[in-house]
Specification:
- By secondary structure, the protein is of the alpha/beta class.
- The chain has one domain: P-loop containing nucleotide triphosphate hydrolases (Rossmann fold, 3-Layer(aba) Sandwich), CATH 3.40.50.300.
- 54% of the residues lie in helices and 12% in strands.
- The chain has a 5-stranded parallel β-sheet with strand order 2-3-1-4-5, with helices on both faces.
- Helix 5 packs across helix 9.
- The longest helix has 16 residues.
- The model has no long low-confidence stretch (mean pLDDT 95).
- Belongs to the thymidylate kinase family.
- One of its GO terms (biological process) is dTTP biosynthetic process.
- This is Thymidylate kinase.
- It is an enzyme of class 2 (transferase).
Length: 210
């Protein structure tokens, strides 16, 4: 059974860059690696509806914290069988965002800490009711919120297809989400967390496979 690793962080923190670097490092050393990116935009109706809501469609849908959280959770729940199969046939399965993102973003929206009610609700829903596999490790990108927000803004300015959604445009929300992520990491929420601040990616890759 392969190791399941979730990479978490704000929009613009560099998750895709980190995942790509880890995959290249591991495959070069002969490991079998699979990746999943959540939300699965373009593959999942629930993820697409959530995205459309965050860009102004579907009336007041995005105003409901729990409705939006449920849409993202249902997107992941639809991938349970695929994740399980991948962990059975690979040495490492790496997830670009996972359940912790739902916990952090919705705690941030409700101005709760990591020990608040919505974080427990997310864990009960996704790991309990939906049976999502619990990661063996989490990696949190420790990029400062201001840096991540500037990267997301610059990315959107250079690519019309990457327009920022309502969450990304809300700088106060991004700061609160960053704080919750750090609390989750400090508490080793559901499994051990490592923080990556941009140091040697090879060292991180080696650490994760020990």
């Amino acid at each position: 059974m392969g190791q399941l690793i979730a990479v978490e962080g704000l929009d613009g923190a560099g998750k895709n860059t980190l995942v790509t670097g880890l995959v290249e490092r591991w495959t070069a050393s002969g490991l079998r690696v699979a990746t999943f990116t959540f939300p699965r935009y373009g593959q999942s109706a629930t993820a697409d509806i959530a995205s459309e809501a965050l860009h102004g469609s579907h009336g007041d849908l995005r105003d409901s914290v729990y409705a939006m959280a449920l849409l993202f959770a249902l997107d992941r729940a639809d991938a349970v069988a695929d994740i399980t199969a991948a962990t059975g046939s690979n040495d490492i399965v790496i997830l670009d965002r996972y359940v912790a993102s739902n916990a952090a973003y919705n705690a941030g929206r409700l101005e709760q800490d990591a020990d608040g009610e919505v974080v427990r609700w997310v864990a009960d829903l996704e790991y309990g009711r939906f049976g999502m596999p619990v990661p063996d490790r989490h990696v949190l990108l420790g990029v400062p919120a201001e840096v991540a927000m500037q990267r997301a803004e610059s990315r959107a300015a250079g690519d019309a297809s990457r327009a920022r959604d309502a969450y990304e445009r809300d700088s106060d929300l991004q700061r609160r989400v960053d704080a919750v992520y750090r609390q989750l990491a400090e508490a080793d929420w559901t499994s051990p967390w490592l923080r990556y601040d941009g140091e040697d990616i090879a060292a991180l890759a080696d650490l994760l496979t020990r």
